[in-house]
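User: I'm putting together a teaching handout on how multi-component assemblies are represented. Below are the sequence lines for each component of a complex, exactly as they appear in our records. Could you produce the 3D structure of the whole assembly as structure tokens, so the students can see both representations side by side? Please keep the chain order the same as the input.
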Amino acid sequence: MQNDHTIIREDNAIHSFCGLASVGWLYQKIRNSFFLILGTHTCAHFLQYALGVMIFAKPRFAVAMLEEADLSKDYVNLKPILEEIKADHHPSVIFLFSSCTPEVMKVDFEQLARSLSTPELPVLFAPASGLEFAFSQSEDSVLQALLPFCPIAEPSDKRVVFLGSVNDAIADDFRREAEALGIPVAGFLPENHLRDLPPIGAGTIVAPLQPYLAKVAMRISRERGAKVLSSLFPFGPDGTRQFWEDLAKEFGMAVNLREREAAAWERIRKHTELLKGRRVFITADSLIELPLARFLKSAGAEIAEVSSVYINKKFHAKELECLRGVRIVEQPNFHRQVSDMQVQPPDLVITSLMTANPLIGKGITVKWSMEFVLMPLHGWSGTVSLAELLTRPLLRKAHLPEFDASVWTMNAMPSSA
Amino acid sequence: MRLTYWMYEGTAHHGVGRIANSLKKVHAVFHAPLGDDYTLPIHTMLERTPDFPHATTSLVTGRDLAQGTNRLPLTLKQVEARFKPELIVVCASCSTILLQENLQQAIDTADVQTPVMLYDANPYRMTETESSDRLFTTLVRRFAKAQPLTERPSVNFLGPISLGFHVRSDVIAMRRMLNVLGIELNVIAPLGASLSDLERLPAAWLTIAPYRETGQEAARFLEREFGTPALLETPIGVEPTLRWLRKLVEMINEIGARKGAKPLQMPPLQAFSLDGLSAPSSLPWFSQTADMHSFSQKRAFVFGDATRTVAIVKLLRDEIGAQIAGAGTYLVKHADWVRKELEGYLPDELLVTEAFQDVAKRIEAERPDIVCGTQMERHSCRKFDIPCMVIAPPTHIENHLLGYYPFIGFDGADVIADRIYTTAKLGLEKHLIDYFGSAGLDDENDEKSAKSSTSSITVPKEVATSCTESNTSKQECRSQNEGFNADAQTKQSTGTATEANAARTEVEWTEDAQRLLKSVPFFVREKAKRNIEKYARENALWLITPEVVRKAKEHIGA
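Assistant: Of course. Below is the structure of the complete assembly, with chains in the same order as your input.
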């Protein structure tokens, strides 16, 4: 029914990170795991800067670095590296991430992971290269790799499995909220430990918490016959209410959470008042763009444009429905977006780390998109943080003294030194 | 293949981006998959660029590869339209270079007016530093044009570069010195130079290129091709700056003599101070003072790029009067030069490695009083509780502070000396504690220093300590501890060799001996403990009694 919705498609000239970025939150989520990237110097340097390895120095992820001599070999020997990881970290599961170079070399990752895997220490392949995957999308790959470790549930076992990596506090909230509504919970994919993964079967209702997990959701319904909840993603009072009401409906319950939603809006009223009527432009980066735009729209903002690297008409159906009338662009062209912003400057731009400061330099108020992926913003309890993230740059700009860029950024650009 | 998670140097294309982002109207285009422009936030976030960095990725996707699509021509057109550069530099990335595509052909089919240069930066053969320097030299070769010398004495300053280490302050320090001498700056490059500036390079009387990593090749080229003499020494430290100034004046006057110009005079030294009335640097007197006598016993370990490693070792030994416990560099291709420069300065071989773990091991084994290193050494040292100051790239947000912190010149000497002093533990205070005991500090430190009765150090506790000690975020502590908590076997830090040996030989302490050890001031206790254990092992005294402690002290003279 929502297929009539127009999505403009451009040429993907965007600024974002590759799929390796998801290591940043997944290694913390899945305890006793190790994330091994078969990659190059570039991958290692990326992780160092993007994930701040400089600060924590002994994380449970690393790069098996291909050097020139490795390029001409007809096999990749990861055994010694695996031994090193085992000795140093004693992981209970290793995720083997692909990257661009070995994919160009046509390394058979499935086979490689199988050959390294043992019953005691599974090595699971998760495709993540920048040739195919943006930023958050590789979480989808990791969850697909975990799926075989979810026991098969009896068809009569009708419970919910929440899909997507969230921190323990948020997980706890969702479990309690579900139980309070009378919704039986099987667990989360992923859980903190491999051994705790929930059973999934034909009776399972899969409730996606993150908007970048379309493929694993599809696969779960195909392989296990589970039903994937079609609703809004649980961000903001509007999304959270819809999410719980739709989920309850799957369990034969008619729940009305309007009052709860109204109370949540009331809690963030001073923020929504600030957002009302503001033009917000969302560039493509983290794949959280659609729910974010929908929340902003519900909060009274005007969406100048929302763009995303990847839009799945089925998985994002309900979000797209709420965004009817909004300009939506898949795989946008950033050059075009910048000129649009210059013609009609938005009040707020949500954009990537690499483009934030240069846009501020052009007098535009900006919020980093990455924060919306890394901060706990789900459900009722995340609502205030979500609203605060969006209004902070507006308030800050209003608070600071008048800024004359021609004076205060003199010589700040290296090429103007 | 090796396992790694931290690099001193970035990839070749990052070097290209640094040059493009330094120069006016030059734009880099990376033929690469999504994400390879992760190098852009290094510019926009660390350097806080108020404009878009001069680099764009021409995206290569799996689908493009399958369909044989090459978007490079389209990207070039888009970049031309949006950035209006005078030159576009195209390079492949580590994955696309394997595709063996004919990028020149793709460039030729692009409908652009802007000159496009294909730069062959093989990421498997060179990294950031070499790639950027070679590109810079290539551009100087391409654009520099023969022309008459400037009327007044002038120099080129080659080497400052986008994301360079304290480079903005170095440029100011250099300007100040040249102003005092009455020498004009013809061109600074690559930082802030346009292509027409590169054209004007041969108009300078001479070229100064103080950084081994960037600009010296170009300076040599200008010397060969246009006869522009090159001054390649580095004015870091007071004595090197004095020598450098005299040489600069001498070289300028040589050229001036040929032109019949009036010779430059070296002005009185106070002219180089900020107010024109004071000593140009406070370092020489500072080193004379009684407070600094303790530095004669301080052992320093230095690790970094080529220029700063050499300069800091010399400054530490020659001007601060400290001892050098060792030094090293991650710039393998510059190691010979560093070795030669530091002949006679080092107690043993120069450490040459790209693996930070090797450096950490060495630091742990040496237990120097101060480490001058990169951000990575700063981190390693936090685990070992050894003071560390950062003296070399890779760049970090802390190297992009707002104030004036040069490394070169007299101003730089003061900045470096201040940092050494505030980083190293206790000068005069240390003497007082030696004389009067620890004044209660001991009790405070008991908890963290005197850990257990066995000889092996429990790293998690150390980590926890360092976390509570400094203002590190909770996030950091959590992450660090997480890395260590798998089980006892993983508790070792990166440098495990010495600890493992110690464990095998199982030296034990009696309670009395431990009490005696506690009487050693806390800040040298760890070192004393190691020395005693070393003595005990060498003499096969497996149980350390007060008697063994006394013997060891006699033997070591501690």
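A couple of points students might notice: The two ends of chain A are 56 Å apart (CA to CA). Chain A touches chain B through 85 residues (CB under 8 Å).
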